[in-house]
C-alpha cells in the first residue's frame, strides 16, 4: 500500500475502459498511475481460448456458475437480472466479449454528442487519424483481420462482413482483443510499468472542497484504507460508476442527486432456424456457412438497429441460421440508477429500467428486419415464408433454452431482457454530468470513461467507442 502513496492518477476498474485509459497514460509517461480492481487476477486468457466453446457458452448463459460474476444492485422490474451483471476480475468483460468492432452510427452521433468529440472519433485526433481508426490499427496490429472483407447477398438484401477484434489461437480456440495485451511480456514497456492491483474494492471517492482527493478501498482481507491521488477515473462499469458518482456528488457542494437518469442497454431480438436443403442456397451463403463469419446490415435513424446474421454448416448439408438485431433504447428519465443515500459506503443501489412506449417502434422495426431475412431465405429454398411469431412480452424468460435448443425447420424467436447485452450506459453523459474532457462539472479531478459517458449509444456494440474514448481520456489526463 505504501507504493501507492504518491500516485497521481487512480483508475477504478481493470476492465476495457480502465485498462485502455491507463495504457494511454503509461505510453505518454506523464505522472504515476495505478489501476484498482475489486476482483482477483485470474490470468489474461479470453474465455473462448481458456474453455471449450460449450463451457464458455455455459459461463455466459449461466453466469451464476462463474466465480467472478457479481450483481451489486437490486432491480424493481424484470430488467437487469438473469444474464446482467459484472465480471469482477482483472480484464473484466474484455475477456468475455465477442469482438464486434463497429463504430456508433452517424445518425446516433447527433446533437447530444459534443461536436469536438464527434470530430475526434470520426475525422482526426491528436494531429493524425481519427480515434476510431487508431482503434482499428491497434487491434489489427494485435492480430485481428483488417476490415473490408467482401459482404454477402441474400436475395434482395445486402450484408457487409462484420469487423471483429478477434484472432485464432494455437490452442484451437480464439480470443477477442483486451487491453491486457499491452501488459504482456512483448507489449509496450511503458504500459507494463503501470501497476494493476487486484483485490482492492473501491467503496467511495474522497471529496474535499469540491475536489476528488483519493479513494476509500477495502482489501481482500477486509481492511479499509485511504489512497490519495490528484485525479480519479471511474471505469468500473456504468452501474458501479453511477453509485460512486452519486456518493461523490453527495460529498460535494453540488445539489445531491440520489439517482442518475438516462440508463440504457441494447434492445435485441432474433431467431434461429435449420435450413435442411443447404444445397439450394447460393454458393456465397454456403461458403459463409463453412467459414462461420458474421455479417450485418447497418441500421438507420428510423430502425435504430443493426441486423446481424451468421450461417453455420452442420451434418447432412444442413445449414443453421442465427440472426439477431441490436438496437438503441430511447434514453430518458424513466430509466435510472438510484442509491439509498444513508449509512456507510457502498450505498445500496437499485436499477429501474423499463422499456417505454417510444421503444415499441424499435421492437417493431427489428421484427420487420428479421422477417425480411426469413422471407428471402424461404424464397431461396422454395418453402413457405410463415411469418415469424414473437412473444408480446419482451425478454424471453427461457432465453438460455432458446439459444441452445436443437434448431428445427420452424424459426424459433427470442429477445434479450434489458441488461442482458451488458452494454449499459448513459448515466454520466457528456454535457450533462461531465464536461467535454470527461471531468465531472461538480467535482474537480474526478473523471469517468466507458459507456456511462455516452449521450447516445446507437445500435453498435460500445466496445470500439469505449476503446476510442479511453484513449482520448488518457491523453487528456497526461497533459
Features:
479 residues; alpha+beta; FAD/NAD(P)-binding domain; 2 domains; 7-stranded antiparallel β-sheet; globular
Structure summarized in a few sentences:
The chain is an alpha+beta fold and 479 residues long. The chain has 11 helices and 25 strands.
Characterise this structure.
By secondary structure, the chain is of the alpha+beta class. The chain has two domains: 2-146 and 164-259 and 424-477, FAD/NAD(P)-binding domain (3-Layer(bba) Sandwich), CATH 3.50.50.60; 266-333 and 354-416, no CATH class. The protein has helices at residues 16-28, 47-50, 53-61, 115-122, 131-142, 189-192, 238-250, 283-291, 360-381, 399-404, 463-477; strands at 9-12, 33-36, 69-70, 74-75, 86-87, 124-125, 128-129, 152-154, 157-161, 166-168, 174-176, 196-197, 200-208, 211-219, 224-228, 231-234, 259-261, 266-275, 294-297, 305-313, 319-328, 336-339, 349-352, 412-416, 446-448. It starts with 8 loop residues before the first strand and ends with a helix. The relative contact order is 0.20. The model has no long low-confidence stretch (mean pLDDT 94).
Helices and strands, with pairings:
Layout: E1 9-12, H1 16-28, E2 33-36, H2 47-50, H3 53-61, E3 69-70, E4 74-75, E5 86-87, H4 115-122, E6 124-125, E7 128-129, H5 131-142, E8 152-154, E9 157-161, E10 166-168, E11 174-176, H6 189-192, E12 196-197, E13 200-208, E14 211-219, E15 224-228, E16 231-234, H7 238-250, E17 259-261, E18 266-275, H8 283-291, E19 294-297, E20 305-313, E21 319-328, E22 336-339, E23 349-352, H9 360-381, H10 399-404, E24 412-416, E25 446-448, H11 463-477
Parallel strand pairs: 1-2, 1-16, 2-12, 4-23, 16-25
Antiparallel strand pairs: 3-5, 6-7, 8-9, 9-19, 10-11, 13-14, 14-15, 17-22, 18-21, 18-24, 19-20, 20-21, 22-23
Helix pairs in contact: 1-11, 5-11
Amino acid at each position: 500500500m505504501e507504493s501507492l502513496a504518491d500516485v497521481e492518477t487512480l483508475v477504478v476498474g481493470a476492465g476495457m475502459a480502465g485498462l485502455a485509459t491507463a495504457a494511454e497514460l503509461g505510453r505518454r509517461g506523464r505522472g504515476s498511475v495505478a489501476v484498482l480492481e475489486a476482483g482477483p487476477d485470474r490470468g489474461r486468457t479470453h474465455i473462448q481460448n481458456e474453455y471449450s466453446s460449450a463451457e464458455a457458452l455455459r459461463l455466459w448463459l449461466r453466469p451464476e456458475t462463474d466465480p467472478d460474476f457479481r450483481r451489486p444492485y437490486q432491480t424493481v422490474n424484470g430488467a437487469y437480472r438473469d444474464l446482467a451483471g459484472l465480471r469482477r476480475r482483472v480484464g473484466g468483460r474484455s475477456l468475455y466479449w465477442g469482438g464486434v468492432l463497429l463504430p456508433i452510427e452517424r445518425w446516433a452521433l447527433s446533437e447530444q454528442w459534443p461536436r469536438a468529440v464527434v470530430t475526434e472519433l470520426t475525422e482526426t485526433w491528436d494531429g493524425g487519424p481519427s480515434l476510431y481508426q487508431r482503434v482499428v490499427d491497434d487491434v489489427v496490429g494485435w492480430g485481428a483481420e483488417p476490415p473490408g472483407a467482401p459482404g454477402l447477398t441474400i436475395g434482395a438484401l445486402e450484408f457487409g462482413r462484420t469487423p471483429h477484434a478477434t484472432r485464432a489461437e494455437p490452442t484451437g480456440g480464439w480470443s477477442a482483443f483486451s487491453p491486457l495485451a499491452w501488459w504482456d511480456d512483448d507489449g509496450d514497456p511503458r504500459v507494463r510499468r503501470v501497476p494493476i492491483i487486484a483485490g482492492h474494492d473501491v467503496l467511495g471517492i474522497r471529496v474535499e472542497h469540491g475536489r476528488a482527493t483519493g479513494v476509500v478501498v477495502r482489501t481482500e482481507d477486509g481492511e479499509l484504507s485511504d489512497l490519495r491521488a490528484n485525479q480519479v477515473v471511474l471505469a468500473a462499469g456504468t452501474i458501479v460508476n453511477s453509485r460512486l458518482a452519486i456518493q461523490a456528488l453527495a460529498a460535494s457542494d453540488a445539489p445531491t442527486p440520489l439517482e442518475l437518469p438516462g440508463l440504457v442497454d441494447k434492445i435485441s431480438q432474433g431467431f434461429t432456424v435449420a435450413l435442411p436443403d443447404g444445397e439450394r442456397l447460393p454458393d456465397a451463403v454456403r461458403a459463409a456457412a463453412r467459414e462461420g463469419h458474421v455479417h450485418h446490415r447497418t441500421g438507420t435513424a428510423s430502425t435504430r438497429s443493426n441486423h446481424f446474421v451468421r450461417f453455420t454448416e452442420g451434418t447432412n448439408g444442413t445449414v443453421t441460421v442465427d440472426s439477431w438485431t441490436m438496437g438503441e433504447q430511447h434514453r430518458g428519465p424513466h430509466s435510472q440508477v438510484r442509491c439509498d443515500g444513508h449509512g456507510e459506503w457502498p450505498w445500496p443501489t437499485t436499477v429501474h429500467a423499463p422499456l417505454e412506449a417510444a421503444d415499441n417502434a424499435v421492437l417493431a422495426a427489428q421484427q420487420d428486419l428479421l422477417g425480411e431475412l426469413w422471407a428471402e431465405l424461404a424464397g431461396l429454398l422454395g418453402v413457405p415464408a410463415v411469418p415469424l411469431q414473437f412473444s408480446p412480452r419482451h425478454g424471453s424468460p427461457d432465453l438460455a433454452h432458446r439459444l441452445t435448443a436443437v434448431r428445427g425447420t420452424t424459426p424459433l424467436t427470442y429477445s434479450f431482457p434489458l441488461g442482458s447485452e451488458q452494454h449499459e450506459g448513459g448515466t454520466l453523459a457528456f454535457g450533462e454530468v461531465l464536461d467535454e474532457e470527461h471531468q465531472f462539472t461538480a467535482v474537480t479531478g474526478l473523471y469517468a470513461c466507458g459507456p456511462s459517458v455516452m449521450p447516445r449509444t446507437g445500435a453498435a456494440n460500445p466496445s470500439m467507442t469505449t476503446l476510442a474514448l479511453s484513449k482520448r481520456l488518457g491523453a487528456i489526463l497526461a497533459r
